[in-house]
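User: Could you check the structure of this?
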Amino acid sequence: MGRSGRPPCLTPSTSTTLCMDPQTALREIKQTNDNYADDPETFEVDKESYKRVLREADDVGGPQLVDALTGRLVQDIHAASERPGPTAVRQHAVDLCERKGIEIPEGSELADDEPTGSDAGIGEDSL
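Assistant: Sure, the predicted structure tokens are below.
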């Protein structure tokens, strides 16, 4: 167990501890966004939604889930040259929880199915 009482995070290639807290993860995502996304200036629009999902991922699954989610988001940004919307980020976290057998508690940000952040207005008719 690590100092936090959680098992340490290990990278497959180096077997060294590499755990990200939500704030470090957010910085890594922003840096990747700034370097690879076609519209890096829009990051601030979704920053708070990303932060909420990363914090909830940490609460529900610990730093291992934060690491896995961050890796997935960085990979998505590299592959598509765009940042996934907040709803997709939350769904990635839910998918990772399901694959890892992590139960999402009722009332969790991850349990909410409503669109969030810049995704909240998608599909709504504007008059």
